[in-house]
Amino acid sequence: MLKQVLEIYELLDDASINGQTVSEYLKSRGAEQIEVKTIQGKSGATDFIKIIFPGTGGKKKAGDAPTLGIIGRLGGIGARPERIGTVSDADGAVAAVSCALKLADMNRKGDVLKGDVIIATHICPNAPTQPHDPVPFMSSPVNMQDMNQWEVNAEMDAILPLTETASFISTVSCNRARPPAPLWWESPSPQKQPYLVVQPVPAMRAMSKRRASSVLKWPKPLRRKNVGSTMKMNSLGWCSYTDR
Q1: Interval 98-143: pLDDT, tens
Q2: What is the DSSP letter of 182?
Q3: How far is residue 146 from each of residues 68, 83, 113, 130, measured CA to CA in Å?
Q4: CB 3.0-4.6 Å disulfide test: which of 119, 163, 196, 243 passes with 73?
Q5: Cis peptide before 131 (omega within 30 of 0)
Q6: DSSP 3-state of 138
Q7: pTM exceeds 0.85
C-alpha cells in the first residue's frame, strides 16, 4: 500500500493535475468504472472523481454483500498561486486515490473483494484560501452540499471518510434499516435518507464548538448515559459531541 501512496502523491503533486489525468492513470492500472465531473463553485472549479470496484458478490452483480464507500474529503490538493506545491490538505485525495490504485492492482492480480467498493474524492490543485496568521487556512471552490451530492452515494452501506481537515479518521455507516451502532441521525438531504450511523471517537468529542453551525439530537431510544446525546456539525460536515 505504501507503494501506491508514493505513486499517487507524485501524480497529484502537479500544478496542472485534473480528474481526467487521474482517471487515465487508474485505467492504465486496471480500473474500469470511473466517472469524472467538473463542478464550478463560487471560488473556482474542481473535478470530482468516482471509482467503482464491483465485488464478486456485490450489488453490481446482483449479490447481497454490503457496499463500502471511501470518501477523500479535502478543500484542495494545492493552493496555487498563493502557495506552490502540494499542501497538507491533500491527504484526503491522496489516501482515497491510493486506495483505488491498490484495489486496481489487486483486481488485476486476481484478488477481488466480495462487496462493491465506491471511492470518491475531488481534484483541485488551485483551491482558494482564507486569511489566517501565521499561514492561511485552506478553503474549497465548492460548498459542503456539492461535496455531499457528488461524493456520497445511496448504495454505500458504510462510509470510511478520510480527511486531513478535521485531523481524524472515523467510520460512518449508512443504513436504511435498523442502525447497528448506538448513534445515528437523519441525513439533511431532501430525500431524508440514508441514515448516518456514527461510532464516536475521542477526537470527535474534542472538536471546537466555535466551528459548529447546526445542532441535531439523537432519537431517545438510542441515547445512552456514556454517549453524547447532542451532535454539533461543523461547516466541513464533521461532528463533535456533548455529554448529558
Answers
A1: 999 999 999 999 999 999 999 999 999 999 988 888 888 888 999 8
A2: S
A3: 21, 25, 30, 19
A4: 163
A5: no
A6: strand
A7: no
